[in-house]
Structure to design on (220 residues):
């Protein structure tokens, strides 16, 4: 990732380099999606190694950028670009431990708490700010991007915010009527099946589906 900020507007007059983002996948049950859940996930991210020190970059004098003047037919043009010696950080490695990489970073496993709202859908991506890889020097951490993966349910099929359940009954139950327990994401519910019901009949339990991710009620 390129520098964050630029010109004279960076932190302390420097460009703040941003660490790279991390991407993980999180599998959720239909019940977790329906109710929302806090997940604790182990993540391997790069952090500044203890004992790493930095010094002001001698190429850009700590500004994080270098200025070039070019003669054109319109006159002298001045352009500023990120310093290649320090990657725009304004600092270079002074000392670092042997197990750190060239940027003074090392991999550390951390447990990250991720608050997942109700109603997420398969393939949706959530962002946890600042839990990606750290950046060297005075840089800011990247983000953790969480891709949602929905696990199949044993008896419920999802269609948007609605849930479908196939209920099989005997011919005598269809003729005489019956009551049956069915699965929902909040537990089992008993429903009444009227006498003379036809195959393919759809019964609707309002509000027993998935909450809308936008907060506009629940599916059926």
């Amino acid at each position: 990732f390129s520098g964050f900020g630029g010109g004279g507007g960076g932190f302390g007059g420097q460009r703040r380099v941003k660490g790279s983002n991390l991407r993980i996948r999180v599998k959720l049950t239909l019940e977790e999606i329906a109710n929302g859940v806090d997940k604790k996930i182990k993540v391997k991210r790069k952090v500044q190694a203890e004992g790493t020190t930095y010094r002001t970059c001698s190429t850009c004098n700590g500004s994080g950028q270098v200025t070039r003047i070019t003669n054109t037919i319109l006159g002298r043009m001045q352009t500023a670009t990120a310093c290649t010696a320090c990657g725009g950080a304004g600092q270079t490695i002074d000392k670092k431990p042997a197990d750190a990489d060239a940027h003074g970073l090392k991999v550390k496993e951390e447990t990250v708490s991720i608050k997942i709202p109700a109603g997420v859908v398969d393939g949706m991506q959530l962002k946890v700010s600042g839990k990606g890889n750290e950046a060297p020097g005075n840089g800011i951490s990247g983000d953790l991007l969480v891709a949602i993966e929905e696990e199949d349910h044993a008896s419920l099929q999802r269609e948007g915010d609605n849930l479908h359940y196939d209920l099989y009954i005997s011919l005598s139950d269809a003729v005489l009527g019956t009551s049956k327990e069915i699965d929902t994401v909040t537990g089992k519910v008993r429903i009444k099946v009227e006498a003379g019901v036809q195959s393919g009949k759809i019964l609707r339990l309002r509000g027993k589906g998935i909450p809308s991710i936008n907060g506009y009620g629940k599916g059926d």
Notes: Residues 1-13 have pLDDT under 50 and may be disordered. Residues 64 and 199 are 72 Å apart (CA to CA). The radius of gyration is 28 Å. The longest strand covers residues 37-48.
